[in-house]
Amino acid sequence: MFEFITPLFLSLILGGTMVGIIFGAIPGMTATMAVAVSLPLTYSLGLENGLALLLGLYVGGISGGLVPAVLLGIPGTPSSITTTFDGYPMAQRGEGETALRIGIIASFAGGIISLVVLWLFAPTLADFAIKFSYVEKFLIILFALTVMAALSKDMLMGIFSGVLGIFISLIGTYDVSSGGNGELRLVPPGTEYWLESGFSLLPVLIGLFGLAAILEQAELGVPKGHSAKDIKVGAHASFSFSVFRGQVVNLLRSGGIGTFVGILPGVGGSAASIIAYTNAKTFSRRPERFGKGEPAGIIASEAGNNGLTGGALVPLLSLGIPGDSTTALLIGAFTLQGVQVGPLFIGNNPDTWNAMIIAMLVANVAMLVMMYVAIRWFALVVTIPKHILFPVILMMCVIGAYTINYGIMFDVWTLAIFGIFGWLAGKLRLEIAPFIIGFILGPSAEIYFVKSLESFGDLTIFFTKSWIAMLLWVLIIGSVVVSVLLARKARRDGQGGEEA
Amino acid sequence: MGDLTRVTIDFETSHLVFPILIAIILGLLGLAIAIRDRARIAAAVPYWRRTLAAMDKPRFLGTIALTLVYFSAMVPVGDIWPNTGLGFLLCSIPYILATGLLFMHERRPRQVLPLVVVALAGPVFVWWLFTYPLFLTLP
């Protein structure tokens, strides 16, 4: 049953977690980027071993963001933004090591809470989703897109980005293996040779999360790295577990919020940590201490963002819908091995499912042990010069794009096109997460939509097929209404431009 | 009402149904955004002027230029020694070196030396890894 647990499997989790922490700890580099540039390595590793590496990178990458957040006041990853609020003031007081250890333990707790939810909830949801027809499957995708757009900074732009992602995913042939007629569409004349199968998913992702991130840094002049003198870990300030006294509810609530946010498609770790932090502050007896070095703030933020890790895998493994950008990349690992994720995945691939659960568990434990024991060493990671790292990452992006489809140079150009597009998207306020989810789910949405109409010949079928379809419409409309109300409230409070 | 909602899809043209629908939705959303953000769109020229003024142009444009040259050169160089991955190797070394120097703020020998080592060792290691243990052909 657990034959996949080999020394290689465990080494890949440990190595992945360590590299992930390093990526997360360097401002400007993210867990998503770590997974993107490591994807080609999984090709020859097999599915279980490949996932071991990627999940280690994922857990490590999300956790590593707390290091610069505490020591420099700069979030290593967007999901650590609220860790800076209390972590940095603690570091300024000479309690950097204490703040880091609080964050590490909270990260571990958040990761484990989300893992339990994943283990219990994903198979149940998948069992339920097996009964879905094309109509319900189409509505689930529509629901995923509206939720994601509704939780974007700008709902209209979020929907536009998601629909644009769908549109671009439709370029190429209407896939015969999925019931299509094999005809080309949306392909400009002269590009049929390259675009026959459309843009390949992985070069698109590597471009958006690898090249685009480095272009953003280049635009800013590649800010100089930090020297060891900037790092205030603290003179071995004593850490005591008594800090967690009275924080169990905060820990559970924040981990739960992170997990729930992770389950919602396309909502990132920054939203998870912000919501968890805001709740911790609201329910605290000492809200005035938040933002001034309150350990409860670090606990909420880190339990919240690590809670995302397991949560984001729930919709991926039960419905085939990625919960965030990094899990969208995991689809690439499955695609490389010819495995399709969706309601049948857990039942048909019990070994892979078990391997993922074990890998997540080991990655969380490895993250706890590595960071707790060697936090002073990981703190030095923030001093690695970017002028050395970035060119190497760019080279890795090229290898990733080139090897993913056994050596197609057009995939490298796809990486360049979407890298520049990713940079431009930030300027045009397009939302990358909805775009990616739209791009991934677009071809499935088309098949489900067209086949539903071919079978039933009536548009009303989308409303009347079953009680699930009706429930999904209620949820779709509800998500849009809630979003509009929240946007109005934010405008009234004068916070319309702030991140949700 | 029943006739209004009835749809017949011809298999021969079924590849156009969804793209057309999505294009219409995209157009309508674009129109809605254009109407809502008309003031911002009208201020696009000053916005881009500010963006360009604040941008580190040598590093940003240099990165794009070097990357495009790197991508363009890999295949022609690789064709000189087909199926060896040397196109990747011989282009990656100068690319890493040039990009690293572009990103550097102080180009003293003490800072440049580690970059030179990485620019040589990094591509060689990756080329070896992909060519031998992983058996993946590079350009």
Mean pLDDT of chain B: 91
First CA to last CA of chain A: what distance?
43 Å
Number of domains of chain B: 2
* Share of helix of chain A, binned: 55-70%
Strand order of the largest sheet of chain A: 1-2
Secondary structure category of chain B: mainly alpha
Low-confidence stretches of chain B: none
- Kindly state the percentage of residues in helix of chain B: over 70%
N-to-C SSE string of chain A, H for helix and E for strand: HHHHHHHHEEHHHHHHHHHHHHHH
Report low-confidence residues of chain A grouped into runs of 5 or more: 496-500
> How large is the radius of gyration of chain B?
25 Å
List keywords for this structure.
heterodimer, A: about 500 residues, mainly alpha, two-stranded antiparallel sheet, 22 helices, about 70% helix, globular, disordered C terminus, B: about 140 residues
Task: Please explain how this structure is put together.
- The complex is a heterodimer of chains A (500) and B (139).
- In chain A, helix 1 packs parallel to helix 3, helix 6 crosses helix 11 and helix 10 packs antiparallel against helix 18.
- The longest helix of chain A has 34 residues.
- By secondary structure, chain A is mainly α.
- Chain A is built from 22 helices and 2 strands.
- Chain A has one domain.
- Chain A has a two-stranded antiparallel sheet with strand order 1-2.
- Chain A is globular.
- With 139 residues, chain B is mainly α.
- Chain B has 2 domains: 51 residues, no CATH class; 77 residues, no CATH class.
- Helices cover 78% and strands 0% of the residues of chain B.
- In chain B, helix 5 packs antiparallel against helix 6 and helix 6 packs antiparallel against helix 7.
- The longest helix of chain B is centred in the middle third of the chain and has 24 residues.
- The interface between A and B is large, with 65 and 65 residues.
